[in-house]
């Protein structure tokens, strides 16, 4: 997946469009990411034992990877991400606007 944990991303679609945040979790199978401070939902929960309290809990929900863009730490732009193979066979991501290798 193009977006990974600990990436800083810019939200480009949805109600939180324009926000930026750090990726807390990535769900490659579902092609979703959980971004800090983005896409809060209200969850209604019922008490279950002593651990969970009843009421409405606000928490972040994962959003689709296509709704975010990676913020390049080098050129500080929302970047399209490409993949490139290094001489040692490793596959790395790179920023399509400045060409810098991301990881
Ligand atoms: Zn860049």
Can you describe this structure?
This protein has 103 residues and is mainly beta. The protein contains no helices and 10 strands. It has strands spanning 8-11, 20-27, 32-35, 40-45, 55-60, 63-64, 68-71, 78-79, 81-85, 91-95. A hairpin with a 5-residue loop joins strand 9 and strand 10. The mean pLDDT is 93. The structure holds zinc ion. Zinc ion binds next to loops.
H/E topology pattern: EEEEEEEEEE
| Helical proportion, percent range | under 10%
Mean pLDDT: 93
Low-confidence stretches: none
Task: State the total count of DSSP E strands.
Answer: 10
- Rough outline: elongated
Strand arrangement in the largest pleated sheet: 6-3-2-1-7-8
Listed once per kind, the bound small molecules are: zinc ion
- Gap from first CA to last CA: 13 Å
Helix-strand makeup class:
mainly beta
Strand content: 35-45%
Number of helices: 0
- Determine Rg (CA atoms, Å): 17 Å
């Amino acid at each position: 997946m193009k977006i990974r944990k600990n990436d800083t991303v810019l939200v480009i679609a949805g109600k939180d469009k324009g926000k930026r945040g750090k990726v807390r979790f990535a769900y490659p199978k579902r092609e979703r990411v959980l971004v800090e401070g983005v896409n809060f939902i209200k969850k209604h929960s019922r008490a279950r034992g002593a651990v969970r309290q009843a009421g409405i809990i606000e928490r972040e929900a994962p959003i689709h990877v296509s709704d975010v863009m990676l913020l390049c730490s080098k050129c500080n732009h929302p970047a399209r991400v490409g993949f490139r193979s290094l001489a040692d066979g490793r596959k790395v991501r790179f920023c399509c606007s400045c060409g810098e290798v991301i990881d």
